[in-house]
Fold these 4 entries.
Entry 1:
Amino acid sequence: MKILVCISHVPDTTSKINFTENDSKFDSNGVQFVINPYDEFALTRAMWFKEKQGATVTVVNVGNVSTEPTLRKALAIGADNAIRVNTEATDGLAVAKELAEVVKNGGYNLVLAGKESIDYNGGMVPGMLAALLDFSFVNACIGLEIDGDKATISREIDGGKEILTSNLPLIIAGQKGLVEEKDLRIPNMRGIMMARKKPLSIVEPVNNSPATSIASFEKQAAKSACKLVDNVDELISLLHNEAKVI
Amino acid sequence: MSVLVFAETSEGKFKKSAFEVTSYGKKVAEQLGTNVVVLAINSSDPTLLYTYGAEKVLNVLNDSLKTFNVKIFANIIKQAAEKENSQVVILDSASNSLYLGPNVAVNLNAGYVTNVVALPSSTSPLTVKRKTFSNKAFNNTILNTDIKVISLAKNSYGLIENEVSGSIEEFSPSLVESNLTSERIEQTTGKVTIADADIVVSGGRGLKGPENWGMIEELAEILGAASACSKPVSDLGWRPHSEHVGQTGKPVASNLYIAIGISGAIQHLAGVNSSKVKVVINTDPEAPFFKAADYGIVGDAFEVVPKLIEKLKEFKANNA
């Protein structure tokens, strides 16, 4: 089994979000970048297939050189090698088209990704990649087992879950449940040392014109202060008469 | 030219979000000077969409579509968009629609934007505002393609009545083959789901143990709400993972979110920020949730919640 894990390089959850150049660009000044949390679930599941079923695991990112420490971290967690597609990730469809080339050239039969990135929250790259390649695709994946060529997949649906089966090749967009949070791995010193020697290849993009572009950013408007109330009667009255939600 | 809306059904019934996207689609069609066409699959009463402005409904009736399949459904939307010469395709943010969107976009060669929270601010080029950075910001996105696919964020536009005398057309699309097979669905029955709920009541570590969840469920029941919990609570196994709301859990975009004994870690707030009105009940006045909430009571959940239940029962009896 040849697994490709898609890794987004995103600001840490606790980062302050600011914009620059007239609110047209994200201000990465002083921001700590991490592996996208949803992608970590995918990577951890891939490690399990590597250790129990002898899969090889490649991690990939579409981005400029600044994303390499994030790919090295994925290598330190245990991926075998990494690929960086050397272009700015501007739009979901453009990223999916770059990844489609990587999948075709590498002959991967299982692609694992997170269901969305916590920065742009597009939630579209894995599904687009599957549509471009005509691979089976499962979104919001909360369980994956592989037996030979056959996959059994659980997907979260509104108010429950659905169990599906498919032959490989397959693409899944994972979330918590694919592995438990306690199973996520922190790179140890040996992993970090080994990651330095693992291959990280840089491929040039096929360069698609983006289907969408961001004109500007806005921060959430400052919220009015919380109204503190002393008793539940007052709360019920406010929710009924002022907020009109009950 | 037209605007195509996909109205999701569950066992023949429209989801509430189907009416929301229809309301939205009607308005977008007006902005573009064109008509709205709504696609429904196995709806038992497609005329319900007229109330929200659906001038034309394409209803697909086919027993083999009772089970959802992403590739087959996406291809039906594509066929409908081609037949109606649709310039814009609008989906909601229920789990099936979010699953369909990327496939629909690729097969229509369309730009795709999700998490959209408002009507287009410009129609040329089509520009929409969407949530980004896990609800901490917005961006205005331009769609550069001929055909555009938009996913409307849940509860961001609302249901807007706009009665029209519409028409229904039977539509029999061809069905493509798929390698993916649905084996079974395990539904949590009888409970309001977090995705559909107008009100969500959520408990945190401040409740001290799973044995104290009775009052959370009672409060939820009185309000017709879904019950939820914070991440530590699901990690500790007090409540199932399916109830975990927050950044890595389920997103909440309800009208009212009541947080009980939840301090309001940034990851939690990121997942619930889209709720319109937030109430916090916590003993610690310094809890970060008070900065994010609209209304708050500083107090012990074990005293406040039983009183709230009692008073809400009276309120419901008087306002029934």
Entry 2:
Amino acid sequence: MTGRAGAAGLGPVTADQRDPELSPDMFAGPAKLRRLTSMLRALPIGVTENVLAGLAIVDGAARGRYRRAAAWAAAQGATGWAGHRLALAVLANHGRFVAEEALLGMDSTAALARDVVLHGADRLIAQPDGALLLGFHLGPPKTWLRLRALGYPVRFAGRLQASVGDPRWQAAIEAGTVIRLPDGDAPSRLAGLLQMRRLLRQGALVYVTADGPFGREAFRVDLPGHPLIVRHGWLALRRATGAPTLPVLTWRDRGRRIIEIHPPLPAPLADAAADAAACRAQLTPLLAGYVRTHPAQCRWVAMPRWSTTAGRRPESAIDQGAAGAPDEQVAGG
Amino acid sequence: MNTETLTVVAAIVSRIVGQARTPAQPARDTRLSQGYLLDSVELLEVVIASEQAFGITFDEQVDFRPGTFETLGSLVDLVERKRAEQGRSA
């Protein structure tokens, strides 16, 4: 069933509805690929995705990523031709997700709502006093934007490299639709974290990713091949605000974009270690199940571009080359 | 400056970062990001703990200026300014 936000407090989506602050052309995709994505922007999405999928496979083979993907595929139990297919699928989907990152083929906000199937919408509607929506670097990007296109007033907190130096983002930043957590020193990021706290206290839905390159490690979810490193920023915010935390997973299925809102994590505990343990206990089977079911859509777990070595300081994680990582990032560090 | 405020704020920071990262002799000019190696989330925790300890509420849109979190002393100054403001409005 396609999700549509006709519930109390949320307006219905119309065919030509545009997000008042955000339009697809404001999203340029990874910096290193902007020239390429700008050239592809005018083409139909099916063509651009296939072009980028093919380029990702070729690029992956040239840079040694195929070997990494194949090793990860083997860790999932896929060997022989099955392993070969899975490794190629991981690389190809990386290319397709680059297209999604840049919103290629999307000419309006309404286009973002097309073909989206939302499960668990009732859990979103059941949070009238706001919530943290917890995303992961699993599956295609820009989940928060798809939820906004469906009519949910989701705010996004992340690095938002696309907004740097682009005045079109000013309205969205001033409205608190997006909260920048910039690269740089801790005080620069603190303002964004405090804004998130204020918005959560005011009853907003704030989307943030739990994992990624930035921030001190809170815990890790052990998965075949590579662990998923969960950072500590969102945990601090949920303890500070008491905000319900809803894990959000997403994947592509035969041309449809599936978004699944999961039941809330346990209520925050005052003790940080106990709270992290409780969250880990609920998240581990959820994330392990996702990787088992959608391994080809797990590029950032299969080939992380940030350190997964235990005990690294946040600065080290940043130094490990977050450049090229998706724009969405964890609140922390 | 109230030395008691400095003592309390220093204790808050030390509790959050742990003894291993607490400088041997913290002082007003001890830098938060370099001296204590505070990251942004730890700074958030310091802000929240300071609010609880002193019964104040910060507004990030008004209270935080460049340099507010540069040193222990600049943070103490902010706390004292906020206490004075909220004491006047009480």
Entry 3:
Amino acid sequence: MPERGNIMASIFRKLLNKKQSNAENRDNADIEKLQLSGNIQDNLNRLKNIMSNSGDIKTREFNLAGSNMKAAVIFIGTLANEDMIHQHIIRPLIMESAILFHKNQVNFEEIKNSMISAGNLKEAAAFDDIVLGIMSGDTLLTIQGFAKGLLIESKEYQGRTVGEPSLEPSVKGPQEAFVEILKINIGLIRRRFRDPNLCIDMHRIGRRAKADLAIVFVKGIVDENLLSNIKRKLDTIDIDGSATTIQLGQMMTERPNSVLPMYQTTERPDKVVSAISEGRVAILLDGAPNTIIAPVTLPMLMQSPDDYFEGWFGATIIRLSRYVALFISALFPALYIAITSFHPGMLPSNLTLSIVRTRSGVPFPVIIEALLMEFVLELLLEAGIRLPRVVGQTVSIVGGLVIGQSAVQAGIVSPIMVIIISVTALSSFSIPSYSLGLVTRIARVPFMILASAFGAFGVSMGLLISLIYLVSLKSFGVSYMKPISTDHPSDWKDSTIRAPLWSMKKRPQMLHPQDIIRLKRRNRSGPNEN
Amino acid sequence: MKTNTDRLNPIQAMTLTTTSILSVEILRSQQTIAQIAGQDAWISIALGGFLSLASGMACYLLASLYPDKDFPEINLDVAGKFIGRLLLLAFSVYMILYVSLSLKIFAQALKMFLLDRTPIQSLVLFMAIVAGYAVFKGLYTIGGVVDIIFPFVMITIIAIILLSIPKTNPIYLKPVMFDNTKDILKGVLPSFQNFTGFSFILYFFSHSDNTRSSIFWYMAGILIPMVLYISLTAVSIGVFGVKDLLTLIFPTLTLLKEIEFPGTFLERLEAFGAVLWIVIVFASVVSFYYMSTRNLVVLFSIKSKYLKYVVWGLIPVFYFIAMYQESGILVLEYPQRVSPLQTILGLLVIPTLAITAFFKKRKGRSQ
């Protein structure tokens, strides 16, 4: 059967590809074969036609200095820096180059080398190159009599400036976050990592959108297998419009349906820098303020930048408490259900009595009570995100007073259940990764159902199922639970605990870095004491 | 992407062996052996442990002679197609019975201590399905899971032993070996049966990156449960005395009940301990489940793409064998009926195979 399935799949894929490439051909048929001609009017008209005669296409025709040679520039006013075009392209061509020649003819090389003061330019003749360049904010200079033009870089994107990270705040760490402009983002990384081996591999994604995408890694550290794996996956992505970072990540992973995040997203440049210096790969997309880091493992999602700005002892305690929070967030209501309905004897008798007393007026079984409160909590969270900030306070009043106090007074839920659900909610937000916190919220309900059916046995079976699932998951070839295994004991130093930085002499070996040694000399008394 | 990460590491020879040896027997092996050897039961267990170390050496030798094959394939290679298949059939029967009995005893204990109203069928079935899920995911996943549960299992058992020590009365352990040698020796073979899991190496050796240290990790994997069994037995005898111990059905769980944790939040510690012990049984069931699957696959020359049907198909088999036996206290005696098979396979068949293979290889090399 599988063979037959494969054949069917490949036939289907071929048909699909054919269909896609047909559509593409139709769109680009005229562009691909076309070349610039010597007639500037002709060129301008064609380009305008291809670009649908949009209103923001700007052209300017002029005579080259002191001659009657005609030239023209064409660019998109909303993308290009007009000041720059006037100062460094049009002005030198009309005025300043007059000193250079008093002859009637000038060759293309002379114009290119001595008459334009703009920084980056390249010769171009094919229309598809030229259109892509103009669409990215570059300017085309076309000159009468030459069947080629000059594509001059003049991009200027409007966007916000570098601000503070909003999703991943830090107490002592740097307060810079990525913005939507790829160039600025790459700059933020380069500034922190001045190794010439830092490699920025540029790609384009989206048949129509053609968004810029950068694969960032450190040559000499990164595992070549991982890199080629990622590049291969990027190449197979065939998307029409623009992709968001998250879509991109989901299209790249081997387990797109996994509930757990198979790649890490971050808005912090310092996180990206430490990731690539460990041997991981970052993918930056133009227009997206977050970055994909791959591969990822569960302990990586539990790390916070603040772990590295504290002493190792404090950082370890905080990190361990986060793991406790992870368990509470997924299991606390389930354990409560298991203990109250199956094993009341596990608790001290006083506590059991007080639970029974508070529950005496509640009309529902524990599981219904818990599911009800869980649902209300999810509603509160969702409403808190959606509500405009001006009325945001309403949620806290409604949530705190009405749901908490009044529901208990009305006898619909027991006060202990309110405490349990509140602690659970708190815990789910102390998990540094939002996606992982979301997973614990999802996992809570199956655990509650297992607990109400099988008690503590159900909870432990649920834990075992999750463990098997987690261990079998792989993110870009790296097992999801990786540092917590016997494979590379030196990786334990930065897993559930955080060992002193001087002791982390090796890069994480689960990532198979080419250069394993991170810290050469044992330097306990240096500034890296922590 | 197939990388070298898909292989087990040498340390996992220890974790996998230990967790597959620590089985449902940990609940009541003290009682079984004390019945035979009295207050010297721990000596019997020590001797049984040494016997399993020797047999384990034979396993290791056999596995290392064929580093690319696992036991069922080695078996066919060494013993020939016909005898090999007969032996494999015996191993398969034994292992399937072992899994079913473990499930049954486990469910029985669970019903007694945690879930008195839940039907035993659902407990057996649920555990079998989860174990099947682990086997379905493969050896590498089993290794990873065991890596994570190993420290918890160790901490629990060591804590039980240490917390019981203040309650032990050394008088119960005396006289040591006084006019009791015969009974001690009688207890050796039943003790040896507690260590069945050591043969797991024959199945995972060909999937590991083996170094010179592998043998030490593997020996540690047998020594750790041996020390745990010995101290657990000694402590149980010290706390209850042989007379009382013989009346207990699951002495380890009763031992948990005896422990008074200073300033405790949880009053009934045994319920809590039982939860962690679910994990212990689970790990050993999974390893035997895996071995049964491999045996059947080679025995009937099943193609690897149909492996999943074997894995899931075994669940009803385990379920019906477990349910076929009547519930109640009698089920606890069944393991002793299967045990001669284990003794023959472990002490006779595997060493013979190892020696045959050794000479076969040497002959092949000299030619």
Entry 4:
Amino acid sequence: MGSSINISRSINNAAETEGEATNSITATALQMSPILPVFLPDGTYSCNRFLPAAVPDAQGSRNPMAFINEFSDQSVNTRVLTSLFGEYDITENLKLKVSVGADLENRDRHVYRTSKFDNINPLNSADVSSVDRTSLLNENTLNYNKKFGKYGLQVLAGYTVQKETEEYRSIGGRGFATDITGPYDLGAGSVVPSVNSLYADFRILSTLGRVNYNFDDRYLLTVTGRRDGSSKFAAGNKYAFFPSVGAAWRISNESFLQGSSILSNLKLRAGWGQVGNQELPTYRSLALLQSDPYNFGNGTIVNGFSPLRVAVPDLTWEITSQTNIGIDASILQGRFNATFDYYIKKTKDLLLEVSLPETSGILDPSVQNLGEMENIGWELAMDGTMIRARDLRWKLGFNISQNRNTITSLGKPSEVGSGDQSYLIAQPTFAGSTPRSYVTVGESVGVFYGYKTDGLYRSQAEADNGQQLQPGVLPGMIRYVDVNGDGVLNSADRTIIGNPHPDFIFGINSSLDYKNFQLRLFAQGQEGGQIYNSMRRFNSTVTRGQNVIAERADYWTPQNTDAVWPTPIQTPPNVGGTGNMGESDFFLEDASYLRMREITLTYNFPQDFLGKLGGSIYVTGQNLFTLTGYSGYNPDTNGRSNVRGSFGWDISTYPLAKTTLIGVKLDF
Amino acid sequence: MKNIKYILFLSIAIITAGCAGFLDEVPKNSISPVNFYKTGQDAISAVNGAYAALRVNDYYSRYWMTSSSLASDGTYSRLGTTSDRGVIIHLSDAGMVVSNRYNIAIWSAVWQAVNRANAVLDNVPNIEMDETLKARILGEAKFLRALTYFNMVRRWGGVPLILNETNTSDISALQVSRNSADEVYSQIVKDLTEAVSVLPNISSYGNEDIGRASKEAAQGLLAKVQLYLKDWNNAKTNALAVINSPSNLDLMPDPKDNWWTGNGNVDNNVESIFEVQYNGVSPQGHQLGNNFEPNASGYGPGQWGTIIGSLWWYNQFEDKDKRKEATWLTEYPAPSGDSLIQWHEFRFPVPHVNKYRDPQNKVSDGMAYNIKVLRFADVLLTAAEAINESEGPGGAYEYVNRVRRRAGLDDLASLSKEQLRDSIYLEFRKELCFEGQDYEELVRQGNLLKNKAAYSVYTIPPMYDDNGNVFTPPASLIATIKSRQPVLDNYELNEWNTVFPLPQTALDRNPKLTQNQGYP
């Protein structure tokens, strides 16, 4: 019998650090015109719209300092994790284990914007919300464990039940007479408060079994099977069975290798198995109505209900089948080790969030099982003790992996045949301002889709020749590629312009000990893969009176014909004006990088230095430098990680912190 | 040992409980069609939802209205054409407009409105309820569907004619082809004709139902549809039926009474026939006024000032025309309250749009005035045009002059049929200016291409100071004003600009849709 309880409470003060346009500290700090003071003479925050009227479209009512001083966002998280378990030895070899666990979490959030926050409208506002999440888990397993001479057998059978509920409520108040009460007097606002609430729950039932068989520590076999049911899927499609089998041969334990002075471990592994994915929001298989009130006559609000979503009656598990082989090897009593794995993963019934054709009148994206995907890759990890002298010891480790992702089919089997099905990932992008994350057969999931550029029209003659393709084009404008070669530049010329997935990712770690000093390094990086620098797009737009990046000054003029950037002239020709620049590969960049994640220099106090106490003093630097050609803050970011199938988006990412720590550690 | 038994027992209890229906999903925070559409109240809620589809930002609250005026000669965007906040409906730039954010957003919003009306028409007939109420609700839904199809067919030409609620998520089944404009118009006439026969008169709605589609609304809209179809006799019949309806519709005394007079009678007044209802409480408030509030002026909650007036169009209003004041914002009180800011002192020194202003309002999404879809003046002009076209000027003067007299203008008389037609056209434009049909009227009148060209010719109107004395502008101000006028080069239009392109996203999601001719 046993039980545990773990209670935690954390308070987190957040700042708006991510978001395009005017919605974050990062974005506003970059876009704030440098010729404006922080404050206006009357003490209010200045902002771009106070630029002299010579800037016709000066826009922006936010000041980054106002984001810091006049905006607060506090979350208080309280979490209780409890579990109660009992074990009962039915026989010597047969054990029953029952556990019941609860994870109870509450998050209260208070967001407040003072009357100084927005320079257009001095309306202060508060949003107070609370989320209660309850997760209950019951696991029941029977475990049989027996050794017969050289054979070992372990059998496990079990049954688990999980239930999770989440409830959310929020109140938004606006127009308070004073900022003194902050978000704590919501009823005092002069604007009718907005109230919202949500509820979601899901349940998972699993039956599982596992057999481990071991012969003489040379042959190992594991067979598992589990049948999972999830409430999130459509009736009749809730359950799926996931088998797996794995075998290993420890060659080094064979008699012909016993006593080898070089080889200390050699193991071959092979396996096949299936796993299921049910990561999707709740209730997505059901047709639902939404509440949308209206008002008549004297303004009285009346109930309204309308279609929100249509049913997805065959919504079911996304299933990945993986085949892998691997080898583990060590030589010289583990001084040098290597592990290599190769895998082929095939995923079917991909859960994708797609937008239905607008004519359906259903605006909410639909989660559907669409298509199949393949991931093929390998991973190699090596480490070794390079120097093993009395006072000097150097360990070096290296790992590298590669994964190739390909969409192999789209659409349900009955529909495939047209061959060119593809989907735009549902995402909050205004068409025409950025490429899209795209899913199409033969490509990786989430490739970038848009126009291809080919430098600029660098002379009048070049522009004259370009009139056919880009009517109205002026010298200094971007040259777009007529991808389909039909002599017309139009939306049919959009194509795959980049892949967000890296060719390789790798890591290096090193540890050097000399007498009482230790120097540890850890670096990590990727080779290949592209990132869309949306921040750069926004900060090179020569409108609204906003600040632009300094390199934008290198734009085309008749005197500067080899410029990188197009002319800021705003007259747009048809497709392919500066307006389409955002939707092109112009802001796609190579995301390769090598980052020094950590360097630590430690000095261990000699014995007896502090009497009986041991201890050390250390200096650590985290993220000290990143070698990359990427012009944004961080090549390793994805501002749209919350959207399935969206990768490689840099949306005014807050820069990664460089940290330097000095510490003393004492061992009592 | 005792405890373990309890745990075992508990565990077995959970397993047993889990067997029956444990994985069934029963959403608690929204209702499912399975347990809706059962009672008369459900039918009312369903049709209320169909009205609410009109109210969204992407439809009447903002984009439908602003795109119509931006595509006309009346206003233009002060923002750079390439800034993605400022992408205006820039018809001459076909490549730009297929990706235009307004066009994309409206295309979704209108289909939501159609689907909601279809949901009523598919589900309400099966409900056991009061038959009179049921007939009214079905009539309301037909009116709402017809209104949106009428908007669509004017803006994009023939669109898919979808007459049933969407009930599949199968994308290939949802990829439908376009119908012809004629087919769409036939359905609009059919829906409205049926709606006329079952809807009650405005005056027979109780206070709590004012704002619902009425017989006059359906008949008035039908008359307007018939103007577009040049079906003069039926247009006349229907317009006159509205004018002579037992609801005693009339014009408000002053044009500005429909907008901002502050007499508390702006909404649902004697002139109103159909309005999208707002009450100022988000999301029951609209945002339209923000676009027109002078930028950085301290006047109004939004002060975006993104859409500003064209001097050419402003100059078309005679000084004595009361609609000039109702339509154009030429001064506003300074934030300090002790002076008036004149139009030439605005940050963007041109007259701004005055309809939809709501300066007392504090929140940008809380504008309370209703948005007018159809009002009595519109029907009077419809009658005048239909009579002039079918019978000649004689019987038409009465109706057009009623509108002119209210505006403080002289009666029209002794005109040829063609002259009267042009006069009525101009009355339509001035009376209904910035009311969500500027572009549509220009196209109908065949003036879209002509008027855009007229932009190049404008005079700078006389300027006055706070005391009404003539103000002589410095050369720099004149230069600024000129620089705020649209660049004519951007407004070269072609015959195919008489409809908008389908948005690119629509073509991407449904390859069966074909683009309108002329657009890439």
